[in-house]
Amino acid sequence: MSPVLRMAAKGRCFKNVSFETSAFSPTQIPESDIPEIAFAGRSNVGKSSVLNRLFGTRKMVKVSSRPGFTKSLNFFTVDGRFRCVDLPGYGYAKVPPRERERWLRLTDAYLRGGRDIRAVVCLLDMRRHPDQLDAGLFSYLRELGVAAVAVINKADKVAQPRRKRAVEAITALLPPLRHPVFTISARTGEGFEELSYFLCSLVGSAG
Predict the structure, then answer these.
(1) Shortest CA distance to 166 belongs to which of 201, 125, 194?
(2) The domain containing residue 171 runs over which residues?
(3) Please, are residues 203 and 82 in contact by the beta-carbon 8 Å criterion?
(4) CATH number for the domain harbouring residue 45
(5) If exposure means fewest CB atoms within 10 Å of the residue's CB, which of 96, 104, 169, 175 is most exposed?
(6) For 179, how many CA atoms within 13 A lie in the half-sphere containing its CB?
(7) pLDDT attached to residue 104
């Protein structure tokens, strides 16, 4: 673990998490008064499971068998000091085009709202190479000047001897990033200690 993460490990990370509100339209987005970390990814990348693992619960974020279930911006307050924001998933073909457009407008309003967004966690699947939609997310965030943190989920789905090669192949397709790439498994909890401490260090909630 790096010196920064060792220092962060002394603090409290993702304690006292509470659901704050859901925003289905830009007018429902709450005022920005504390730092925020947003979470984005394809509709089947396991975003809800990742958030529940970070929060230390199985019930805080709804996990659905139907990809594309998240239809709003969902705000969670962590220890009263920062927020985690669950963004609608992307790339699910069965969602009507009009609904996809609404999600895009809602996400865009959030990201362009002048908020204190410390980073957007961009979730990827270890079994799949990033495609045009994934690349578009990173490009979009770069244009907005919002930091992206690449997090590769579902490590448990790939045999240990193949993981390094899979991570290298995915990383090679990503743009230059200011933060390290993390490898995790929402099912087993692999990689979550380091990820949680790193995210808390971004918002100054550790130490």
Answers:
(1) 125
(2) 3-202
(3) yes
(4) 3.40.50.300
(5) 96
(6) 21
(7) 86
Quick check: helix, strand or coil at residue 41? strand
Token code pair at residue 137 = 């997310």
Residues 6+ apart with CB under 8 A from 100: 90
Give which of 75, 150, 80 is closest to 119, Cα–Cα.
Answer: 150
Extract the tokens encoding 12. 């409290």
Mean pLDDT of 31-45: 92
Single-letter residue type at 48: S
- DSSP category for residue 152: E
Locate 135 and state its tokens: 């690349």
Query: In this predicted model, what pLDDT tens digit does every residue of 146-186 receive, in sequence order?
Result: 999 999 999 999 998 999 999 999 999 999 999 999 999 99
Q: Which residue has the tokens 């495609």?
A: 131
How many whole angstroms separate alpha carbon 12 and alpha carbon 8? 8
Residue at 13 is within a domain: yes
Helix axes 47-55, 192-202, angle to 10 degrees: 80
